[in-house]
Amino acid sequence: xxxxxxxxxxxxxxxxxxxxxxxxxxxxxxxxxxxxxxxxxxxxxxxxxxxxxxxxxxxxxxxxxxxxxxxxxxxxxxxxxxxxxxxxxxxxxxxxxxxxxxxxxxxxxxxxxxxxxxxxxxxxxxxxxxxxxxxxxxxxxxxxxxxxxxxxxxxxxxxxxxxxxxxxxxxxxxxxxxxxxxxxxxxxxxxxxxxxxxxxxxxxxxxxxxxxxxxxxxxxxxxxxxxxxxxxxxxxxxxxxxxxxxxxxxxxxxxxxxxxxxx
Length: 263
Hints:
Radius of gyration: 23 Å
Structural class: alpha/beta
Strand content: 15-25%
């Protein structure tokens, strides 16, 4: 186990006392404003960390509950998501242009799942035959695509590779919805998000995509860090029955609406 040594505070003090006088803030109003901005940023970053943990729990629940079969394609994400898959998973293909193939495949060994990583555009799923995959999982992937044409290309590929009645599970950050990331952008002009996010209209549009027979989603953490969390099933008679069963089950449990489904 690595031992982390305590910092030498005398060196820190020496460094601070050696700073030139020109960097000293002498205006009390300016100093107060500077401290206030730093404090606000710190609060936002801590809150983002808490929300990140909540989103990880949501992602784990979605992937555990809605991945139905042994073969999965994951669009984006990292090693931690590999550990969220149910025990029946037998093969995971992870696709992304900026992924670390060696790290992901090593993570698969540790999780007990065979992982094959593809360093390529997520719109290119040519390695998978048509109707051969039990689930496609998108972890912020739609938000990385720069235009609607690319998103449609991706969805066409997703529908092609999915078996009839199998799900496309998605977790996407919603842009234009404020939240803590919006506050941080206003405060200092930076974002903690790695994706551009998608609009709610884009997610609603999944219901009109030819090939999806049943789509359901919720907005998680709506007031603080809004994400669209849901599933879209490739159309088939089996899928339609499954969708009806899900809806009937929610009504039987007294669910208020779909907007409460994934919280």
